[in-house]
Design a protein that fits this description.
By secondary structure, this protein is an alpha/beta fold. It is 41% helix and 21% strand. Bound molecules: nicotinamide-adenine-dinucleotide (NAD). The site of nicotinamide-adenine-dinucleotide (NAD) has 22 residues, from helix 4.
Length: 366
């Protein structure tokens, strides 16, 4: 009897429902083709939940998540919520969800598909044959969570960057282990010339070095890192950094892959993983059926691999995406001369069709 996997599906706002539709379509094709028992439970989150329940993370949504084996998340937020109090803002739902589920690791692979190398704004001589960088972002602490965090008066506000040794150690353990499985290079990104928290990070990193002597460690200031990522991206293998810095540099790294619509992520550390594209709800293109669903579909493949140990199925999805891109099928954000520009749903259909073809011809992994 096959194991049953329960997936909480949280489409959210803006382009969220459009991109999630395509990821569910792809997962359904894998479910059928590989005879895997996947069950989808939908729940409201973000602005849509605020509209329906007066809170961006309703109790029933949290319960659906806690009762699942993994969470597939779209995106949240939109200009219509910009003026409500920060506590009620849609984005707060994700912060609460991460905290509730103990998700302290955010794994963000930035990988260039070969057919998109010329789509990147970075020159070919810099990008060469594309990048393969893993950004490990600390997700549960730092500037996004530290207290005090408040508006003091009309003239003053405060946010706090706070880290404990325990929080730094657990994210470093993950980052060093990832580096060991990859090219054995770890870049610690911080602002040690100004921030006390960065000094603490460096102390903890030094205490790790003897246990991971096969990993080469280097340190880089965040300001320099933002430049190095576009000047010399091939120097990076695994980057580990605090919450806010990781959020910022992963958006930048998406430019190396051609579009922010290409970068998936996995939030890990608790019993239930959460998988989502790194981008937001893109209100400027919401409802137009033109958003790129690939980051979300890649997030679904990370879910199969990380949460369900279905590595072969995850590989089929990646292979299908690669083949569809090679065939020149593109959403507008990654279109090129001579490519066939398709809608969000047509991109999902093309990937499903390719998955079915791969399954029939058994040409799954070359
Ligand atoms: P964004 O990532 O939504 O959009 C930035 C730009 O990238 C826009 O031009 C958008 O059209 C484009 N883009 C994003 N995803 C795309 C895709 N899949 N295909 C094609 N183009 C895509 O960032 P933003 O505009 O700064 O934020 C919009 C809203 O999203 C805000 O409310 C913000 O708070 C929220 N947000 C949510 C998350 C999340 O849900 N995890 C993350 C970041 C921002």
């Amino acid at each position: 009897m096959n194991k049953k996997y329960k997936v909480a599906v949280l489409p959210g706002d803006g382009i969220g429902p459009e991109i999630i539709n395509e990821a569910v379509k792809v997962l359904s094709a894998i479910k059928k083709g590989m005879n895997i028992s996947l069950q989808f439970e939908y729940a409201d989150v973000g602005g849509v939940a605020y509209d329906n329940y007066g809170t961006s993370l309703p109790e029933q949504t949290l319960n659906t998540c806690k009762d699942s084996d993994a969470i597939l998340f779209g995106a949240i937020g939109g200009p219509q919520y910009d003026n409500i109090s920060i506590e009620l803002r849609p984005e707060k739902a994700l912060l609460k969800l991460r905290k509730e589920l103990g998700l302290y690791i955010n794994s963000r692979p930035a990988l260039t598909f070969p057919s998109l190398i010329n789509r990147s704004p970075i020159r070919r001589e810099i990008l060469k044959d594309g990048v393969d960088i893993l950004i490990v972002r600390e997700l549960s602490s730092g500037l996004y969570y530290g207290e005090p965090k408040k508006r003091i008066s009309s003239e003053e506000a405060v946010d706090t960057m706070r880290y404990t040794k325990t929080e730094i150690s657990r994210i470093l353990t993950y980052a060093f282990e990832q580096a060991q499985q990859r090219d054995k290079k770890l870049t610690v990104v911080d602002k040690e010339n100004v921030l006390q928290t960065s000094k603490l990070w460096r102390e903890v990193v030094s205490s790790f070095e003897s246990s991971y002597s096969d990993v080469e460690v280097d340190y880089m200031y965040i300001d320099n890192c933002t430049m190095q990522l576009v000047m010399n991206p091939h120097q990076f293998d695994v980057i580990v950094t605090e919450n806010t810095f990781g959020d910022i540099i992963s958006d930048e790294a998406s430019a190396l892959t051609g579009s922010i619509g290409m970068l998936p992520s996995a939030s890990l550390g608790g019993q239930i993983g959460l998988y989502e594209p790194i981008h937001g709800s893109a209100p400027d293109i919401a409802g137009m059926n033109i958003a790129n669903p690939i980051a979300t579909i890649l997030s679904a493949s990370m879910m199969l691999e990380n949460s369900f140990q279905l590595a072969r199925e995850a590989e089929i999805i990646r292979k299908a995406i690669n083949n569809v891109l090679e065939a020149g099928i593109r959403t507008p954000d990654i279109s090129q001369e001579n490519s066939q520009v398709v809608s969000t749903s047509e991109m999902g259909d093309a990937i499903v069709q390719e998955i079915n073809r791969l399954l029939i011809t058994n040409k799954v992994v070359e």
